[in-house]
Design a protein that fits this description.
The complex is a heterodimer of chains A (539) and B (376). Chain A contains 19 helices and 20 strands. Chain A is 37% helix and 26% strand. Chain A has 539 residues and is α/β, with parallel strands linked by helices. Chain B has a four-stranded antiparallel sheet with strand order 1-2-4-3. Chain B starts with a helix and ends in a 5-residue tail after the last helix. Chain B is elongated, with a radius of gyration of 31 Å. Classes of the chains: A alpha/beta (539), B alpha+beta (376). Chain A binds chain B through residues 20, 62-64, 333, 335, 357-362, 364-366, 368-370, 373-380, 387-388, 390-392, 402-403, 406, 416-422, 424-425, 435, 438, 442, and chain B through 4, 7-8, 10-19, 22, 25-26, 29, 267-269, 271-279, 282, 286-287, 290-291, 293, 374-376.
Chain lengths: 539, 376
C-alpha cells in the first residue's frame, strides 16, 4: 500500500489572508502527499495552518483568503478549477467532516432528508433506492435503530451520533479521500474512542485514504500511518508514525510529545480545615411545562451529592458531558438554585440571598472553560481584571486598581503592558491567564475551575496546569477541578470524584482511582484515555 | 515603583486597537459605506446651512413665478417680461403704448385717459419682476408717461411651487425637518428600546414575560389611532411628532434588543461577572449594553429612514408638520399631485429623500459588516 502513487499531492502551497494589518500568511509553501488507502495525520497547534491547508485544497477558504501552488488530485490541479468542476470532486471524491457536529447539520431537516438529498443529486438514484442507501449508510456507521433515526431531527441526537451522521454523509459517495478536521475534539473521551474505532474500521472496509487533522497526538498514534508536523504554516517534520514517536528529530515535535501535563499534587496536610462543604446538594431543572403544556418534566442534574473541600486540596470532578459536574460546581458557588446544605467555613450559605452572598463572592471564584467566551469583547484586559475590585474594594483609586492589575497580570505570567489591549488580540492560552488573573486578584480561598484547559492546545495546557499549581502553593488555595480529561486531572488533583448522571460513581485518592478503579464506568473512562497515558509513560 | 512607572509608560505605547477602532478601520475599507457617510454629512451641512445662503426665503411667495420650471439661467425670461408688464399695467390702470429694453432696464411708455399719478409707479416696484421704478418723462397733460425700471434678476435652480415659492430653499428646509425628526425620533426609539429590552432580556423569567406582554399590547394599538389621540389631547405640535414616532418605533427596538440580551446573558463573561459579585445594574451597564451596541447602531441606521417615511405619511394625512413649514414627505405628496404638469415639484424632494435613504442603508450595511465580521 505504501508504494502506491499519491492520489493527492500538495506542492508549494501558500495560503494568505488579507487583513487590516496587511497580508497574513497562514501556510508558507508546504509539500505533502496522500496515497490511496493510507491514513495521514497533520498535527500542529492552533494557528499552525493545518486546517487552512485542507480548506484551500477544497476551495473553502474565507473570502479574504487566497492560495497559490498546486493541489494535484489524480492529475488535476484543484486550485485553478472553476466552481462547477470542483463541485464534481468535492463532496463525492473528496469529502470532509468537521469538528463541530452540533452546527454542521441543518437543524430544520431530518437526518434522512439531509442524507438522501446529496445521494440523489450526486448519484442520480430514485427516491426509493436513495432511501435504502441512506439506511445502509446509517448501519455502516453503527447508529442504533437506523430506520427510526432517518426520521429524527439533529437535536434529538447526541454529539457522538451526530458525528456518525456526518461521517455517513461524507461516505455517501464512496470518496477516495476523507478529510477529518478534528472530528473528535468536541466529544467526550469515551465517544471519541468509539468514533476513532469506527473510522479505522470503515477505512479497512472501504479502503479510502483518510487525512486526519488534529492537535491530539494520542489520536495520531492510534490511527495514522504517516504524520506531518506543522508549525506556523510550515511542515517541520514528516515520517512514519512509529519513527516520529520513537525518534522525533525536530525540537518542536519533541516539545509536542512532551506536552502532556506531568507531576502530581501532594494531598493537603492532615487536619487541614474544610473550607467548602456541600451535603445532600440537589439541583433540578424543569423542562417544558407551563400554562397549557401540562406538568413540566423534572431533570435531576445533581442528585444528593456531598463534597468536602479542604484547604489546599484539589478535588478533581470527572465525568462525561451531561454528568452534572459543571452544575455541581456552580451550585456549590450558589450561582444556581439548589437544595441541601452548603457550608463555607463555618457559615451555612445555602439560604443566603443575592445581597448577602456578595461579600462572600470574592472568596469563591470561578474560571471557565472557554477563554473566548468568558472575557467581554468590549472591555480592555485591565478593566476585565479589575472589575471585581470595583465591587469588593470600592474605595480603591484608579491608580491603585491599575497597580493591582499589573501585579495580578505579572503573577499569571503576562506582560502587564498589555493591559490596555482587548481580549481578541490574545491567544487562547493568554486569555485563560487573563481569566485566572481576574479570579486571583480578589485573593479568593476557593476557586472552581470548570474545564479550564479543555479548549487549549496540549503544550499550553501544560503551562496552565503548572501555573494553577504554583498559584495554589503561593496562596493556599483550594480547587474544585472539573474536567473530562483524565491526564490533566491526574496532574492537578489529589482527590477524584467520578460522576455519572448526577450521582457520584466512585471517589478516592487520585492514585488509588487511577491504579485500581473499582467501578466499570471509571474503567471505561480510563480505557478511552489509556493511549494517551501510555505514550506519556513512553515519552 | 520605577518599574511600575516604566510599565505604565509602556502601556501607553501598546494601547490596543479597541473594538470600535477595529470596526472603524473595517468601515473605512468599505468604499460604498464611506462615500455614503460623506454624502450624509454633506447633506446635513447643506440642509442646515443652505437656507441662509439661498437668496429666497422658503415662505416668500413670488406671484409672478408660479410653477416656474427649474433653470440655471436667471429669470425673468424675455417672454415673461411682457406678461409681467401687462400685469403691472392692469394694476396701474394705464394702457401700455410701447416698451423696449436697454441693457438691464426697460423703458415703458404708458397712456391713460386721466392724469397719471406718479405714485402709481409703486405698482412696478411691487412686482416680483421689476425694481427701482423711475419716471423718466411726463407729458404736459400728464396723460402719457415714460417709466423706466430695472429687471430683477432671480435664480430658481429648482423651480417654484404652486404658489410661487422657491423650491430650493423649501427642499433644504424640508431636509432640516426630515433629518431632525429622523435623528431625534430614532434616538428616542433607541434609548427607550435599549433600556427596556436590555432590562427585560437580562432579568428574564417573569419580569421578562410581563414586560414583553406590555410591548405586545402596545403593538396591537393602531399607530394612526394613537397619533390622532395624541393630537386631540395635546394639539398639533412639532415635538409631539418625535414622541409619537419614537414611541411607536421603540417597540421593534425593544424586541430586537431583548433577544440579543437573552443570548448575551448566557455568555460566560456575564456569568463570570455574577461570580465576581457584580450587581445587576453593573452587569447591565458594563456587560450587556456595550455588547448590544453593535446591533443597535446597525438597527438605528435602518430606523432613521423608517422614521422619515412615517413622518411623511403623517404629514400627508395632515397630522404632521404644517404649512408653511414643510418636510420631504409633504413636498413629495404635493409633487405627486402635479407630476403631469410640474414634475420638478416631485423630482427634487424625491431625489433628496431617496439618495439620503440609500446612503443610510449603505452605511447600515457597512456598519453591519464592520461590527459583525464573520471572518475575524
Amino acid at each position: 500500500m505504501a508504494d502506491a502513487a499519491p492520489i493527492l499531492s500538495v506542492k508549494d502551497l501558500r495560503v494568505g489572508f488579507r487583513t487590516l494589518d496587511g497580508r497574513v500568511d497562514a501556510v508558507r509553501g508546504i509539500n505533502l502527499n496522500v496515497k490511496a488507502g493510507e491514513t495521514v495525520a497533520i498535527v500542529g497547534e492552533s494557528g499552525s495552518g493545518k486546517s487552512q491547508t485542507m480548506m484551500a485544497a477544497m476551495g473553502l477558504l474565507a473570502s479574504n483568503g487566497s492560495a497559490t501552488g498546486t493541489v494535484d488530485y489524480r492529475g488535476r490541479n484543484l486550485l485553478g478549477l472553476p466552481k462547477s468542476e470542483l463541485n464534481k470532486i468535492r463532496g463525492s471524491k473528496i469529502s470532509m467532516i468537521f469538528q463541530e457536529p452540533m452546527t454542521s447539520l441543518d437543524p430544520l431537516y431530518t437526518i434522512g432528508s439531509q442524507l438522501i438529498e446529496p445521494i440523489r443529486r450526486h448519484r442520480g438514484l430514485n427516491a426509493k433506492d436513495a432511501h435504502a442507501e441512506a439506511l445502509r449508510l446509517l448501519e455502516l456507521v453503527r447508529i442504533p435503530e437506523p430506520r427510526r433515526r432517518l426520521r429524527s431531527y439533529p437535536y434529538e441526537m447526541s454529539g457522538g451520533q451526530r458525528q456518525r451522521v456526518m461521517i455517513a454523509m461524507a461516505l455517501a459517495n464512496d470518496p477516495d479521500i476523507l478529510i477529518a478536521d478534528e472530528p473528535t475534539t468536541a466529544l467526550d473521551v469515551t465517544v471519541q474512542a468509539q468514533i476513532l474505532k469506527l473510522l479505522a474500521d470503515l477505512q479497512k472496509k472501504l479502503g479510502m485514504a483518510i487525512v486526519f487533522i488534529t492537535h491530539d497526538l494520542g489520536i495520531v498514534r492510534r490511527l495514522a500511518d504517516r504524520v506531518y508536523v506543522m508549525r506556523s504554516g510550515e511542515v517541520v517534520e514528516e515520517g512514519a508514525t512509529q519513527a516520529i514517536f520513537s525518534t522525533p528529530k525536530h525540537d518542536y515535535t519533541k516539545m509536542l510529545l512532551a506536552a502532556e501535563p506531568t507531576g502530581h499534587k501532594a494531598p493537603p496536610p492532615p487536619g487541614a480545615p474544610i473550607v467548602l462543604e456541600g451535603r445532600g446538594v440537589e439541583v433540578t431543572f424543569e423542562i417544558g411545562g407551563g400554562f397549557l403544556a401540562g406538568d413540566p418534566m423534572i431533570l435531576r442534574a445533581v442528585d444528593k451529592i456531598s463534597v468536602a473541600l479542604r484547604q489546599q486540596q484539589t478535588i478533581g470532578i470527572v465525568g462525561e458531558s451531561g454528568s452534572g459536574k459543571s452544575t455541581l460546581g456552580r451550585a456549590l458557588l450558589r450561582l444556581l438554585p439548589s437544595t441541601g446544605v452548603i457550608r463555607f467555613g463555618m457559615k451555612d450559605i445555602a439560604k443566603l440571598d443575592r445581597e448577602d452572598m456578595r461579600p462572600l463572592r470574592r472568596e469563591l471564584q470561578l474560571v471557565f472553560q472557554d477563554p473566548f467566551g468568558s472575557l467581554s469583547p468590549r472591555m480592555t484586559v485591565g478593566q476585565i481584571v479589575t472589575e471585581g475590585l470595583l465591587v469588593h474594594e470600592p474605595g480603591l483609586s484608579r491608580a491603585d486598581r491599575d497597580r493591582r492589575a499589573i501585579e495580578a497580570l505579572r503573577e499569571v505570567g503576562l506582560d502587564p503592558a498589555m493591559r490596555n489591549r482587548y481580549p481578541h488580540e490574545f491567544s487562547g492560552g493568554q486569555r485563560q491567564r487573563i481569566a485566572i488573573a481576574r479570579a486571583m486578584i480578589l485573593k479568593p480561598r476557593v476557586v472552581v475551575l470548570d474545564e479550564p484547559t479543555s479548549a487549549l492546545d496540549r503544550s499550553v495546557q501544560k503551562q496552565i496546569v503548572e501555573l494553577l499549581r504554583d498559584l495554589q502553593q503561593a496562596h493556599e488555595l483550594s480547587y474544585l477541578f472539573i474536567s473530562h480529561d483524565l491526564s490533566v486531572v491526574r496532574a492537578m488533583a489529589d482527590y477524584i470524584i467520578v460522576m455519572k448522571e448526577g450521582r457520584i460513581v466512585e471517589q478516592g485518592e487520585t492514585e488509588a482511582i487511577f491504579d485500581h478503579p473499582a467501578e466499570d464506568y471509571t474503567r471505561t473512562l480510563m480505557a478511552a484515555a489509556v493511549d494517551e497515558t501510555r505514550f506519556r509513560a513512553a515519552g | 515603583m520605577t518599574d511600575l512607572a516604566a510599565t505604565a509608560a509602556r502601556a501607553e505605547a501598546t494601547r490596543g486597537r479597541s473594538f470600535w477602532g477595529d470596526a472603524w478601520a473595517r468601515l473605512k475599507a468599505n468604499r460604498a459605506a464611506m462615500v455614503s457617510l460623506i454624502y450624509l454629512g454633506l447633506m446635513a451641512v447643506v440642509c442646515i446651512a443652505g437656507p441662509w445662503f439661498v437668496p429666497h426665503q422658503y415662505t416668500t411667495i413670488y406671484a409672478d413665478y408660479v410653477r416656474t420650471p427649474p433653470s440655471l439661467s436667471a429669470y425673468p425670461k424675455p417672454e415673461m417680461i411682457e406678461t409681467a408688464l401687462a400685469d403691472v399695467m392692469k394694476r396701474m390702470r394705464v394702457d401700455l403704448k410701447e416698451w423696449h429694453q436697454e441693457g438691464e432696464r426697460i423703458f415703458v411708455t404708458v397712456t391713460s385717459s386721466r392724469e397719471i399719478d406718479e405714485r402709481n409707479t409703486r405698482y412696478v416696484d411691487r412686482s416680483d419682476t421689476f425694481d427701482d421704478a423711475r419716471v423718466e418723462e411726463k407729458s404736459a397733460d400728464g396723460k402719457t408717461m415714460v417709466i423706466s425700471a430695472a429687471i430683477k434678476q432671480q435664480y430658481f435652480l429648482f423651480g417654484t411651487d404652486n404658489t410661487g415659492r422657491d423650491m430650493l430653499s423649501r427642499t433644504l428646509m424640508a431636509g432640516r425637518v426630515s433629518l431632525a425628526i429622523g435623528l431625534l425620533a430614532g434616538v428616542v426609539a433607541v434609548v427607550i428600546g435599549v433600556i427596556y429590552g436590555a432590562t427585560a432580556g437580562f432579568l428574564g423569567g417573569r419580569a421578562d414575560e410581563i414586560m414583553m406582554r406590555i410591548v405586545d399590547v402596545l403593538y396591537s394599538l393602531p399607530f394612526i389611532f394613537f397619533v390622532i389621540m395624541l393630537v386631540v389631547f395635546f394639539g398639533r405640535n412639532f415635538v409631539l411628532m418625535f414622541l409619537a414616532v419614537g414611541a411607536v418605533l421603540w417597540l421593534d427596538m425593544a424586541r430586537i434588543v431583548r433577544g440579543q440580551a437573552l443570548s448575551i446573558r448566557r455568555q460566560e463573561y456575564v456569568q463570570a461577572a455574577e461570580a465576581l459579585g457584580v450587581s445587576r445594574t453593573g452587569i447591565l451597564a458594563r456587560h450587556i449594553v456595550p455588547n448590544l451596541l453593535g446591533v443597535v447602531v446597525i438597527y438605528m441606521t435602518l430606523l432613521v429612514p423608517q422614521v422619515i417615511i412615517l413622518e411623511s405619511f403623517l404629514s400627508f394625512l395632515g397630522l404632521g408638520v404644517q404649512e408653511p413649514m414643510t418636510s420631504w414627505g409633504v413636498l413629495i405628496s404635493v409633487g405627486a399631485k402635479n407630476i403631469g404638469t410640474a414634475n420638478w415639484l416631485l423630482l427634487f424632494p424625491a431625489l433628496f429623500l431617496v439618495s439620503t435613504l440609500f446612503a443610510l442603508n449603505f452605511v447600515g450595511d457597512g456598519l453591519r459588516d464592520a461590527l459583525d465580521p464573520k471572518d475575524r
